[in-house]
Amino acid sequence: MLRPLDKTALQKIVETTAKDLLVPGAVVILRTPIGDFSTTFGTATFGGAVPVSADEVIVTQTPRAGWAVATDAGETVAIDITVTPELRREGLAREVIRLVQEARKNDGLDVTDRISLRWSASDPDVAAALTEHAQLIAGEVLAVDYGSDAEAPGPGVPEHADPDLGLRFWLRRV
Fold this sequence. Notes:
The chain has helices at about 5-20, 85-105, 125-130, 135-140, and strands at about 25-30, 35-40, 65-70, 75-80, 115-120, 145-150, 160, 165-174. The chain is an alpha+beta fold. The protein has 2 domains: about 5-80, no CATH class; about 85-174, hypothetical protein PF0899 fold (2-Layer Sandwich), CATH 3.30.2320. The radius of gyration is 29 Å and the shape is rod-shaped.
């Protein structure tokens, strides 16, 4: 959450940054929507500070690792783009929903048909996602019967697979 800028605190940061550079004549200028802040540390020549205009300074943004930053019309937004294990499992569940919906269509099922869905996953993360998000998946694909199985549920039920996910599943109209 972005907070309003405190002008006094911001000027102090600019002054501290200039001193931390430890370069006589270092100039720090910070341009913000609420005004410009600047300071110098020492001088480049004996007898006074060297004036520097904002046009002579290049400001770049370097986001922290794991963050994305965008600026437009004087507004800056930073977003944490770290993918947590929970977020990854939810993404896997949504990918499985897409695969099952595609299989329903390819098997000629009607969009309102209720199904039985059985699955087997060799990847522990995929199995965890299918278990953790069982209610979401079953609801989205209209599965009234849902669960894991190592083998096909019976003759005549086609197997669907996604080798990249290490997933096999079977569905049939109920």
